[in-house]
From TrEMBL:
Positions of the Major facilitator superfamily (MFS) profile domain: 11-396
SUPFAM superfamilies: MFS general substrate transporter (SSF103473)
Xref: PANTHER family: MULTIDRUG RESISTANCE PROTEIN MDTH, RESISTANCE PROTEIN MDTM, PUTATIVE-RELATED-RELATED
InterPro entries xrefs: MFS, MFS_dom, MFS_trans_sf, MFS_Transporters
Protein name: MDR family MFS transporter
CDD domains reported for this sequence: MFS_MdtH_MDR_like (cd17329)
Provenance organism: Saccharothrix xinjiangensis
Compartment list: Cell membrane
Keywords recorded for this protein, A-Z: Cell membrane, Membrane, Transmembrane, Transmembrane helix, Transport
Bilayer topology: Multi-pass membrane protein
């Protein structure tokens, strides 16, 4: 094994471990934030919802900014600053008591993720493409492993939070800050500095280029259709569980089932899809599975019990393990390598905005009795499957990224 290959493989292990640790620390705190705001601090319900929405916006909505900064300065500074801000945000949240302090701490926590997550995702995508060129291993395998590591952290994070909640929510926050301190030290020691090979365009010029890039926008729509349906885990699924059982006791187990299935199935499914499917075919197949999950839920409603909810969770998760790595794998084929971070960040930000826009109309479906709401939901991933862009002309089989249209 050459020195370059060994360093690349070591960086892969670091970034995959990072994704696990990120979600471990984050989900040790997030599931208990609403209860802390409402019960411990006495905030009104509308204000709790506003704070949680603000956290989502400061994270998902600003991914495009974090991705652009990673392009311009490299992933290492973005990751280190993001980790430091996450430590500060969690420590601040542990002691915040008045409304404005809580809001500022939550925004800081979200913005920290908007810095480090796009940087890590960009570097993983870059390494996946390089490995594909070097070894022939399809890039979806590494991207699938990255997704599985994140889900493992999301599965175990709440368990870590429970261990510390006995001592109060501030202790759980400090535990999360401790995890990110270790991540910060690990990256300070192990993550190499990768200087930019060429300066990307200005941020505004990059955004203008995205607005003209039809194939990339189609990919964003396809990815957004997955995320809109994934958001139904927090909207339509609780409503269905409550309708079927009269309470929400089973909801936590269904969430754990979803994360557990990703942890167990992501790597073998990615290995199989790398052999059997192109990324475009995998993305379409994943979206069709998600649509089938909505259809199966509608068909099973007369059966009653938790069977409709189980069908939705299992097929949604099956679609997720195919669609998410495939969508990320397609981005390097469509954009200039110098703007990979900007475009990966933009895909997440645009998807977040579309989820926000769709939440109201789809939320109204929760009150619709019977199969109608689930059949309407099925139309979203079906439309997304139609949006998967065709293979770019001139794209090499190795997956070499194409120059962004109009790049000067």
């Amino acid at each position: 094994m050459t020195t370059t290959t060994a360093r690349a493989d070591g960086l892969v292990r670091l970034l995959v471990g990072t994704q696990f640790a990120f979600n471990l620390g984050f989900y040790a705190v997030l599931p208990y934030l609403a209860t802390h705001l409402g019960e411990d601090l006495g905030l009104a319900g509308w204000l709790v919802g506003f704070v949680l929405g603000l956290r989502t916006f400061s994270q998902q909505g600003l991914f495009v900014v974090g991705g652009a900064l990673a392009d311009r300065f490299g992933p290492r500074p973005a990751v280190l600053v993001g980790c430091a801000l996450r430590v500060a945000g969690f420590a601040w949240l542990a002691v915040a008591r008045d409304t404005w302090s809580v809001i500022a701490a939550v925004v800081l926590v979200g913005f920290a993720a908007a810095l480090f997550s796009p940087a890590v995702e960009t570097e993983v995508a870059r390494l996946a493409v390089e490995r594909e060129r070097r070894t022939g291993e399809r890039r979806t395998r590494l991207l699938g492993l990255f997704n599985a590591a994140g889900q493992a952290g999301a599965l175990l994070g709440p368990v870590l939070g429970v261990l510390f909640l006995g001592s109060g929510f501030p202790t759980a926050c400090l535990a999360g800050a401790g995890v990110f301190t270790l991540v910060l030290l690990g990256h300070w020691r192990l993550m190499p500095h990768r200087p930019a090979t060429a300066a990307p365009r200005s941020f505004t010029a990059g955004l203008a280029g995205i607005a003209r890039h039809r194939a990339f926008l189609l990919l964003c729509l396809a990815y957004s259709s997955y995320l809109v349906l994934y958001n139904q885990l927090y909207l339509a699924l609780p409503a269905e569980v409550g309708r079927a059982t009269g309470d929400q006791a089973a909801l936590g187990w269904l969430f754990a089932l979803s994360s557990g299935l990703v942890v167990l199935c992501q790597v073998p499914v990615s290995r199989w899809s790398a052999r059997a499917l192109t990324p475009r075919a995998a993305l379409r197949a994943g979206l069709l599975l998600i649509a089938a999950g909505c259809g199966a839920t509608a068909l099973l409603l007369p059966v009653g019990g938790l069977w409709p909810a189980l069908a939705f969770v299992v097929l949604l998760t099956a679609g997720q393990v195919l669609a998410v790595p495939a969508a990320r794998a397609l981005v390097p084929d469509l954009v200039d390598e110098r703007e990979l971070g900007l475009h990966l960040g933009a895909m997440s930000s645009l998807a977040g905005l579309l989820v926000l826009a769709a939440s109201g109309p789809l939320g109204a479906l929760v009150d619709v009795e019977g199969a109608t709401s689930w059949l309407v939901l099925a139309l979203v991933p079906l439309a997304g499957a139609l949006c998967v862009p065709p293979r770019p002309k001139g794209a090499e089989r190795s997956g070499q990224g194409l120059d962004h249209p109009g790049y000067e």
